Structure prediction request, 136 residues.
Amino acid sequence: MGVLKNILVVDDEAGIRSLLFEVLSNEGFRVTLAKDGKDSLDQMERTRFDLLITDMDMPGLSGMELLRRMKREGRKEKVIVMSGRPLDQEDLGRDVQPVFRTLQKPFPLDNFLEVVASALGPSKKRKGKKRVRAAA
Prediction:
């Protein structure tokens, strides 16, 4: 069995944090929660994460500022961004941590899990092997 992946979920809405914690935990991920950008930076100082899932619109330290700080610090976590408004890579700019995918809230949970699996690579996704064999 593969190594347990560590995911940090950052959102100022407790309901969203709880929902994503439950969904990701049920899939076998080790999930840590943060209520805002500052809390997430504190968490990242203590623990190495494979994936950061963050809201963009938060009081205090926003998701955008969090991504800027991550880039300045040379962080290596993959990032999925959530927002209640349409947002794409160009909206983020070049001075932020690279973003794997943006998701507009609300999003279907099955789509969310596909994006998470894709961000974490082939260890959680076996469909790729079947396609390669079928194409051969």
About this structure: The CA atoms of residues 38 and 61 lie 6 Å apart. The helical segments are 14-26, 37-46, 63-72, 89-92, 109-120, 127-135.
